[in-house]
Automatic annotation (TrEMBL):
Stored Pfam families: HTH_18
Protein name in the entry: AraC family transcriptional regulator
Sorted UniProt keywords: DNA-binding, Transcription, Transcription regulation
Lineage of source species: Bacteria, Bacillati, Bacillota, Bacilli, Bacillales
Domain HTH araC/xylS-type, first and last residues per copy: 9-107
Length: 304
């Protein structure tokens, strides 16, 4: 039932809210009104791991980002994320990533970070609110032009699927792929969001992609199971909806944007689609950015 998805999401929120002083299982269970055993059982059922392992993985992953992005002492990072000593952090780091914190700081490389679990989705929210009447007033999709410079894209291209759900259901591990790309977030092409999905076209067939855009001169490591492709500079038509409530409005926002994006005639703006050698992008960051579909275009030829 959706109730347990919501309850486990509360537990996830408590954990991620302060990884150094996570409330005890007993405290969580008392606030939720269920036994510690039942809370633990449901957490494992929905996340695939024990609460203890989840806390450990999130602590070590957040510590990795601190090592990568700050000059804080390793001891201070250890204490910040609940490790008893620098040695304890080092043991955990080596166990998780096969590299010491010091070595990782000196030469960051792609590692499988543990991402935040999301088990309460818009689907569960709609079930919960199905008996409540709610009038939704969404604005129309905005249409604008954006130029994205030549860049490289690191990720996975799957010609057998054409949307987000199919992609993760076709043998790609969402946690592993997303966690590894998160460890590369400092390489994100300036002006872009980081982890990005989208569509590409191969021999007339539409496929789905997921990865991260990086600078044209990136020559670092490519994670196992991923590829890198060069994407030429292009103008894009951006079909955009500003930030919204993910749980309440995600489905409607995506339908509103995509209905316009896939039916729009760019000739009204003096363009034509240019998707043969380029790819479409899908930006989805509800609370911080919003939702957008980007399709590459080129100017219509000038008639004599």
């Amino acid at each position: 039932m959706y109730e347990w998805n919501e309850m486990v999401q509360f537990m996830v929120d408590w954990v991620d809210g302060d990884l150094a002083t996570v409330p005890s299982l007993l405290t969580m269970s008392e606030q939720l009104g269920y036994s510690p055993y039942y809370c633990t059982k449901q957490f494992h059922s929905l996340t695939g791991m024990t609460l203890r392992d989840y806390i450990w993985q999130r602590r070590i992953s957040r510590a990795a980002l601190e090592l990568r992005d700050t000059d804080a002492r390793i001891l201070d990072i250890a204490v910040k994320f609940g490790f008893s000593s620098q040695e304890a952090l080092t043991r955990a780091f080596v166990k998780a990533f096969k590299i010491t914190p010091y070595a990782y700081r000196k030469a960051p490389r792609p590692i499988p970070l543990a991402i935040r679990s999301e088990v309460f989705s818009p689907y569960h929210y709609l079930i919960k609110e199905r008996d409540k009447m709610r009038q939704v007033h969404l604005q129309e999709a905005e249409i604008k032009i954006e130029r994205i410079p030549a860049h490289k894209f690191i990720g996975i291209w799957d010609v057998e699927v054409s949307d987000y759900g199919q992609f993760w259901g076709n043998g790609h591990d969402c946690d592993e792929v997303s966690g590894t790309l998160e460890s590369m977030s400092h390489h994100t092409l300036p002006g872009q969001l980081g982890q990005t999905a989208g569509w590409f076209y191969q021999n007339g067939q539409k496929g789905y992609l997921y990865g991260i855009p990086v600078a044209e001169d990136y020559n670092g490591e490519i994670p196992e199971g991923m590829q890198v492709r060069e994407i030429p500079e292009s103008e894009y038509l951006v079909f955009f909806h500003p930030p919204f409530d993910y749980l309440k409005d995600n489905g409607e926002v995506m339908r509103t944007v995509e209905q316009v994006a896939w039916s729009y005639n760019p000739e009204s703006m003096g363009y034509q689609w240019d998707e043969d050698s380029k790819q479409d992008y899908q930006r989805h960051f509800p609370e911080g950015y919003g939702y957008a579909v980007l399709r590459p275009v080129k100017k219509l030829p000038i008639e004599d």
